[in-house]
Amino acid sequence: MPSRGMHEVVKSVVCDDRTPAQVGRAFRALLAQGMTIRVAGAAKHRPKQLLTRGYTPRQSFTLFGTRFFVSVVRQNPELRFCVAYVIPPPRRAGPPIAYARIFYKDLSLVWRAASHVAYDRDGSIWIGKGDVREFRADGHVMVESIESTTDLPLEIQTALEDCSRATKKTRADAAILRMVLQQAPPSRVEPFPEFTRPRARARANPANRIHGGRSIARFRRRGDPASLEFAPGFEPDLARGIVETNRTKSNLYHGVLRRYRILSKNRAIQYLFIAGKRQVWIIPPQALTTELSTFGLRLVDVVADEDLFIPGYEYHYFDEYADPPALYSQIPKGYAGRPCAHDPNKADASPWLEALPIIRAFRKKVLGRKKRG
Question: What is the helix (H) or strand (E) element at residue 166, kind and residue range?
């Protein structure tokens, strides 16, 4: 049985102090020394064409021995993304391997690694959102994505924000996603073995299961934010657990936002709180393990009720294409606020968020104020 992975609390990494040209030359020097680029998508037989298409790395940083080389940022209608080359620490003799991945920014303002891609018959795109779980609905067994399994380490989120800001003018590229990502048929939600096998190996070791694999946060009553409770020790330590704070910007969220990385009271996991002009929300917590996959992701999960991690704006609209047409909402019933000014398919989730005891405590103890109306 493999031993439990190492745990470490570190400050967020920063981009290397090199110019984009220097980063590009360093990456090409690794290729000249024998490093290979491995691609899961349509470019897998000619992976170096990613470089000639404008995806030579411009920024780089390192976390736990894994090196990240990040390209220019692009902006398609569906998402803001970059090509990232993930180079794991060497495990045996031989040249390193750079795994080409798509890193993208989610609605919650967290950077993720896409697990795969699918295209509907009408040409619309669906980005694979990681591992899945089964659930029953109307007598049928269904599967749904566990989106937090694609959340990149909290320790590199600031560096990725810096990479994004370094791109002064973005342009679209509709072809690059299928070139880099393994394509699935429209009906497939599940990721491919390249994503799931390392996670399954880590999960097979009981020592890797945070809180024994049980949920660290739940609601005693479904749809009641006041009934939130944490497993003892796994509460965010708002008094002494703040590791660091930094800032970011978002037009969607009305300007400058502050981000607070906070440890749990038992120092077993970490949270990221995001505080904007109007909303405060929590990114799903992560372990403090140091082993990363070839996607740049942690292999150990923290299980918690997803209703605790609803972002400031979430999908809430009437789906006229459903059979029969119906309201589609990712905000608990009765808690959707005003429509988003930037996207009518989203609504303000503040009525739910502000009723969560942990958000109220965060405003009082960390921000030092209540929400302004």
Answer: helix 157-166
Q: Alpha-carbon dihedral of residues 186, 192, 195, 201, nearest 10 degrees?
A: 140
Buried b (16+ CB within 10 A) or exposed e, 134-170: eeeeeeeeeeebbbbbbbbbbbbbbbbbbbbeebeee
The pTM of the whole model exceeds 0.70: yes
191 and 217 co-located in one domain: no
| Cα distances (angstroms) measured from residue 343 to each of 24, 110, 265, 275 | 37, 19, 38, 20
Residue 266: domain span:
211-367
Per-residue pLDDT of the chain (373 residues; tens, 9 = 90+): 334 468 999 999 999 999 999 999 999 999 999 999 999 999 999 999 999 999 999 999 999 999 999 999 999 988 999 999 999 998 888 899 999 999 999 999 999 999 999 998 877 899 999 999 988 877 888 899 999 999 999 999 999 999 999 988 889 998 999 999 999 998 899 999 999 999 999 999 999 999 999 999 999 999 999 999 999 999 999 999 999 999 999 999 999 999 999 999 999 999 999 999 999 999 999 999 999 999 999 999 999 999 999 999 999 999 988 888 999 999 999 999 999 999 999 999 999 999 999 999 999 999 996 565 5
- Which candidate, 307, 310, 294, 304, places its Cα nearest to that of 347? 310
329 lies in some domain: yes
Domain boundary among 178, 199, 220: 199
Q: How many domains does one find in the chain?
A: 2
Q: How far is CA 89 from CA 16, 26, 128, 220, 312, in A?
A: 17, 17, 26, 43, 37
User: How distant, in Å, are the alpha carbons of 28, 85, 86, 225, 246 from that of 98?
Assistant: 11, 5, 5, 44, 30
The dihedrals phi and psi of 42, each to the nearest 5 degrees, come to -65, -20
Here the tokens at position 146 are: 């566990």
- Has residue 192 been placed in a domain? yes
As a whole number of angstroms, the distance between CA 225 and CA 227 comes to: 5
Residue 189: its H or E element: none
